[in-house]
Amino acid sequence: MTDDILVAGVGVPDTRLAREATELVRDETSELIYHHSRRVYLFGALQGRRRGLDYDPELLYIGAMFHDLGLGRRFHDSGRRFEVDGAEAARRFLREHEVPEDGVRRVWTAIALHTTPGIPEFMEPEVALVTAGVEYDVLGIGYGDIAPADRAAVLALHPRPDFKRRILEAFTRGIRPKPETTFGNIKADVLEHYVPGFERGDFVRTVLDSPWPE
Q1: Alpha helix (H) ranges present in the chain?
Q2: What Gene3D superfamilies does UniProt report for this protein, alphabetically (predicted)?
Q3: What sign does the CA torsion over 71, 12, 27, 85 have?
Q4: Is-above-0.85 flag for pTM?
Q5: Do 62 and 107 touch, CB atoms closer than 8 A?
Q6: Coil, strand, or helix at residue 188?
Q7: CA-CA distance, 45 to 84, in Å (whole number)?
Q8: How far apart are CA 92 and CA 72, in angstroms?
């Protein structure tokens, strides 16, 4: 691997796989999602360096770049969680490029679990660091873990103007067509805030109202 650019000491993979992934994401998503996805890679890699984790930069990059692909219009009728749509798209892409199955599995898992806190951190580094990058960029978790100069270097390349509002709008657009996929996960919060009339699923009611007779 060579680096097309070094950001805060982190190299962005410059391989055919990485370049084609970047092209695909730029073709199918907005500038908002593109810059967010690149920041997720860079912040995840910086957290990996801080934690002393040995990760595969190419796999981490693919996981970061595809993690929000499932919000796109072509997935609005899938009936599946957007995380799974993105994971499935990444799996097809990686298999087309003959990436070994262990790498495919790691990327699929990293994307599918990136909104499920409390689990990825105990898994393979690529899985843990996609979530770490997402949590850093969207929620500010561990904000002080990355040096201000490193954070500034990332933002100079991939700025985040009005990001909080715009990413919530993107989440809403991506999941509003399939509200049933928010049951039991954090995206129900998004629809509750931004979609009038949305009623979130209730786990307790689901248990009590199940067809079991007792």
Answers
A1: 16-28, 31-51, 57-66, 82-96, 101-112, 125-134, 148-157, 163-175, 187-194, 203-208
A2: Hypothetical protein af1432 (1.10.3210.10)
A3: negative
A4: yes
A5: yes
A6: helix
A7: 23
A8: 16
Confidence of residue 214 (pLDDT cuts 50, 70, 90): confident
Residue tagged 């796999």 (tokens): 59
Q: Cα–chain-centroid distance for residue 97?
A: 21
For 45, 65, 152, 172, 197, the CA distances from 128, given in Å and listed in that order, are 10, 15, 23, 25, 35
Residue 83 confidence class, pLDDT cut points 50, 70, 90 = very high
What mean pLDDT is predicted for residues 51-56? 97
Separation between Cα atoms, residue 204 and residue 123, nearest integer Å: 29
Over residues 132-136, the mean pLDDT reads 98
